[in-house]
What does this fold into?
Amino acid sequence: MTKETRKHRVLIAKPGLDGHDRGAKYIARTLRDAGFEVVYTGIRRTPEEIAAAAVQEDVAAIGLSSLSGAHLRLFPAVVEALRKVAAPDIPVLGGGVIPEEDFTVLKEAGIAEIFTPGTPVEKIIAAFSDACEAHYQKRNIG
Amino acid sequence: MTSIAELIAGIKNGEPRAIGRAISIVEDGGVHGHSILAALDVERIEAATVVGLTGPPGAGKSTLTNQLIAHYRSQGKRIGIIAIDPSSPISGGALLGDRIRMMAHAPDQHVVVRSMATRGRLGGLCAAAGAAVRVMAGSGCNIVIIETVGVGQSEMDIVRLADITALVLAPGLGDDIQAMKAGLLEVADILVVNKADCPGAESLAMDLDGVVRERQKAPDNLIPKVCMTVASEGKGIGELAEEIARLDAACRASARHLLRRRQSQHLEILDWAMEMLRPRLLELISSETDDPVSDPRVKAMEILKKIN
It folds into this structure.
């Protein structure tokens, strides 16, 4: 009847106590300008809050930003929180000041992509777009 | 969830994943949208109170919503929130930021928040707002609050969708009262002066009292009230919630509630019918030989005759 009008819906969040949200806001705006519907949840969120919001908002991907060095604990904690709310299928992407030696640990913990200050913005947009498309394939209904 | 039946059962059980999924399917025009909407619990939808919060950007709608959530939760009520922000006319994307002020309630399973983008729709709502209200009510929400985009003068769609509409204003936003006089002020059920601790709040309340007095022709129990709130400090929230409850009870006791819901349904059906007709009309228009001199209105008449 009505034609399908799907938009990529993503959630951009900052877990933990780090209040530096310039990067997160920049990515949120960039994705908005690339046609995404971006739910931004603000600074200082717990992994549980982020997971609950992602489920309610039915986003196809989550982007986390961390500039404080706590990514090794906080990014996997969001993956774990998603598992607890029966949403392990929602992909988590992470960005911020992340040393290369941490990449392997994060990927093993389920972080789909990692972006650092040097990552070209086109690459970030493409990664979110791919993550959303892959998520739609995995989803059973709709 | 592997089937549409499970999804529908999930909504009835108030499962966040099922509710979130269902709203997306309906909003995106997915193939299962109709069967989901048709299966919702009609009694729950009828019992739920739909509250509209509207007002100019920055008046404090989201902060007020957050306080209302806390208030209703303390009464043990399950509450749904639909927070609408504008889509970009250029990229079609949107930044949905109303949730920031409500994040403390995120892990509470009885607070269902959904951010929605207008997706090109004018009037302060998005096309799927009505459907989202029904999914939330069908999941057992006793109250569903719809927070409109920040509005100007004529975004009045909320008045027809909500049972009770509160117009949220704040002092210091300029002399917008004059501009709004022939609009929302005439049709809102409750007028809220938020940021009531700021300079100018008293005189704003007095202006609004004047507007209210001009509306004396309303039945006694439905005359709008001016509520003073300081949402950031939680002041005046109980009084506002009481006023919402009082009006809702008064509307339900009279024919007004049913009348409003029926009108709302008719207008939403009209919206959807127009939306479904649109592709066919566009096709007819573009298939007509190009004739730049013919009058658009005359042409429209000709095309409508073809559809009959």
